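Continued from yesterday's entry.
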Amino acid sequence: MNRAALALALVACSGGATPPVTEPAVTPAASAIDPAAHLPTQAEEIVFGDHVPGTLVKPGKAGKFPAIVLFQGSGPTDRDWNSPLITTKNGSGKLLAEALASHGAVVVRFDKAGVAANTTKLEGQTLDIYVAEARAALAYVRSRPEVDTAHVFIAGHSEGGLHAIRTADLEGNALAGVLLLSTTGRTLRDILLAQITTQIERAAPGQAEAMVAPFRTAMDDFIAGKTIDPKAATPIAGLQQLLGSLTAPASATLARGLLVADPLAGVAKITVPIFIYNGEKDVQVDPTIDTPLLASAAKANKDVTVFLDAGGRSRAEARAQVARRAAREPRRARDRVQLARPRPRRSDGCRDRRLARQALALRDREAGDTAILLALIVGEHVLELDLVLGAKRREQQLDARVA
């Protein structure tokens, strides 16, 4: 999805109620951002709420503009959408904010609790800490003289979409719209179990259910508040490590909340316009499962736009490209990075700026999004999780699994 597509989505959210469509195309209102504009931009460092650090980017001209608060995806992902768990840094959140500002929006992005410059401790915290920070960001943008307070949006990517939904439930009609970018329609518990089952079935056909069943039981016991022993719960070393990270005292409260948070219940209560975006080749947030779930949950809302992006390359396509190169020349370090993250293509109209396609969906298209989410729980350690062999090889690549 390119920046013009998101601009049109914001235009759609700015207008009156319209039936759901798959290709948003609405004439911009005077208060909407302009997909055709290429304005100079200005950035400034800000602090709001309970010492939450962030960056505000705005058009470099006088006027009143709509505002967008961006909430990044999972794990230790900072305001620019970079993560210490990922070796390459494309700063897609920064690029996205600058692109939207060039179209006539004031954009705020920030370091969430426990990440980068935000020193808030996560121990004992619940998901409410993220909602509090998002609402503080919204309050801040409304206080800015250059912001049209009637047109303030929140956009969440991946796990950030869950926090955007929960924030919208409390903000009500004070928001002009909610943008869900590659947001799951299932709980983390269900996604995690589905991914693990698929991986085991591929490696050991016919054995997945027997191997996953004790892990599922242990996870549900943990969610119910029971004490579990990871080694007694499953013989698979990788799953023992995963349960250990989930149940660690410093992260258990937050982990329980992440595992059971239901995005559908929240979406069903949103009354302002909703934009639901997903990539058709997304390997983590399934466009055939999650997108329809979100759209169905929002059916009572008469202003819902669904946009499925058919562009970009899947991880399998990227692997094939690397395999072809490896056959021609010795494998080098850059091939490893390319295997994990295909080089993003320029979006139409980006000119000399490479607005990575990742800016809008997109990290989880090539990455295991659940892996990155669980990285928040285990800190800076990324281990490749081989569910059958229990390998513990440490990796720094996008498709790593967290243990």
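--- second protein ---
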Amino acid sequence: MASAVEMALLFHPGFDPSRIYYGTDTRAQALLVGASLGLLLAVVPSLTSRSVSRWLQPLGLAAAAAFAFMVVVVNSNTSAMYRGGFLLAALLVALLIWAVVAVPRSPLAAGLSLGLVVYIGRISYGLYLWHWPADRILDGSRTGLSGWPLFFLRTGVAVALAVASYHLLERPIRERGLAGVLPLRGNGRRKAPSIAIAAMGVTVLAILGATVVPAASPPTSALTTPVSDVRTHAPVRMLLVGDSMATYLGGDWRTVAPRYGVQLTNEGIIGCGLTSTGRVIVQGEAISDESAPYFSGVKCRRWPQYWTNQIDLTHPQVAAMLFGPFELRDHLLNGQWVHMGMPAWDNMEISNLQRAVSVLSAQGEKVVFFTSPYYKQGEQLDGAPWPEDDPARVNRWNALLREVAAGHKGTVSVIDLGRFLSPGGHYASVVHGVAVRWATNIHITPAGGALLAPFVFPQIVSLASP
């Protein structure tokens, strides 16, 4: 129970659940349920008595059906799984095992004893290990497939790898230790297992190369060669507002900005979009846009006043704004789900952008709109990208920024951050050899921020010049 409660407390809809999904402490609940069942069956013989078995069989069948339903319907982003769903799944499987152990000659036990089912059980750990690289490498963008064709391709490759792993690696090692797979001198009788090891090693390297963000450093010039010399002018005061895109980038920029003669105040707020309606769809699930752990209802709902207060405190010469995926998601507006590119949502965004200009330029400040890069926040179960990652939505958002800026010439400028980070008009995790995006494929890395600095800050300084 402690493991399940910890999972529920740590989970927040709309935020990356990887820590909770992969955490030993939060996933220990399934192992502990199984261990508890084994202990109970060993010390309480009556749990497998004939009287108990009578009602246990229909419960076992119901548990099997319920578990199969969960496998089809839910996924790793379903909120309910982190709020008791994983515990429920473990309990259903425990009930199924209990029913089979209690009546080993039941129809349920017979079904689970079929040769194909037993063989799948034997290679199940291999399937568990190899399905992940198969899914990661054979994604929709690489194969051009989605839905059932992509599912069968991934499954076929995972099964082939698991079968090869079982017969060429796992079983020989279990029966003969490492001698079962290492090549012999002379006749080379064990060449096939050795080749299998080499092939799987290459596969692992390919997986790492395809999934791990390379640890790259920005060019030295991006860190040490400022275009504007702070000795020639007083520091330019810059205020940065926005959502988590601004929060992370601004945090990394604070140590870089002084080298370009810029004094940066970062007031981005995680989980706080420019336009909020109360409900938002994040990777297929509708949640409250106030449910994020770092969401501050007062700041987000009253951002004009909050920004005004920050301007009064910092007296910026340039006020810059950067918003990311929040504006691109589906939002519930007047009972209808709307998104970027639909007139109802576009008009709301334009209205708030006009309001943002009024607030940020109220004391004569120059205003900067940073365009948004493209995003790639994983795939749906059928291999298709999430709707909020649609490049058309990013393009429309950036077009709205330019449209509003064009109506305030001399006050509002657009710095094309999106084009810099998405060269060629598509998502890029690496630019000029630098890893510019975190593994979530949303936020900009510190190295990416340093790479952007010589592109952005000279423009900020120029805007502040008389």
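The chain has three domains: 2-113, 130-211, 220-464. Residues 2-113 form one domain. Will compare against the first tomorrow.
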